[in-house]
Amino acid sequence: QVLSMSSLSTNQQETKRVKECQNFISRDKMVHEINEERSYLAGGFLNIGYNEMQLAKRFCLEVSSAFTASVLVSPLVSIIDKAAVQEIVGIVSFGKAVNTACGKMLKSPFSFLSGTPFLTTVAVYFGTYSAANLSEFANDYAKTESKEIRKTTKVASATVANLSLLAWRDALFAKMYTTNKPAGPVPKLTTGCFWIRDGATMLATFYLAPYFADHVTSIFPTISHDTAYLTTALSVPVITQIFTAPLHIFAFDYYVRPMATYNDRYARILLELPKVCLARCGRILPAFGIGAYSNRKLRESWVSKNSS
Fold this sequence. Notes:
Elements: H1 2-41, H2 52-89, H3 94-107, H4 109-113, H5 116-141, H6 147-176, H7 188-219, H8 225-256, H9 262-307
């Protein structure tokens, strides 16, 4: 009887401990759910388990990747873009403008690096790559698992940044390198052409290039996805410039000669098309090929290494 009572007491104690553990687990689960709900209501950006130092470090790595990639591509892009504008408005030939800018970069690097063309170009691509990187950053901490949502937010962020900044910079170039500056601001038609031109380039870069890269690897399994991505990232945006170069010429010509006739405008586009098309293709290679690829590899190296 004594043993029976002792066994009963032991069972009661074990049952009591089990209930206490269950209550503790239930309370812990409730607290976790409340914190998750608070995180969701706050926008899901600050994820549970990450402190402020980790967030700041990740932010700095994302921005550093964007800045490094933008500095790498901006010298060549700024030279080509400035020379193309000077060719269109009739200040100097494209080849001569490129030679002058390259000579300045080599002989007076500080003057070149502190000049408006270089700094504004850095701003354009730093803003573009930063928008793309920080979109990935936000999606990671929001635990966004949908690939479609992640891609959409990344493309939307980068596109808005790129279109806005390039329209601002090219409008500035139009004012800087036009001899007979028209009165008033840059026409909306000119700015609209800039937006369409760059929107087509962004579409080719973020959607068409990966799309064709996937098809290349499916048709040729021996080709790595990294090789296919690099090839399409360089070629697809370049091919797009064949169709957007006329818009580029028209935008600047309309700013310089708003009253020109249709025939005069058409003749001007045909005259400048070979050089401008070549220039646009040449500047896309570093900007959306090498630059985007460098930004991607820097993120993979820096962010992955420091997040592991």
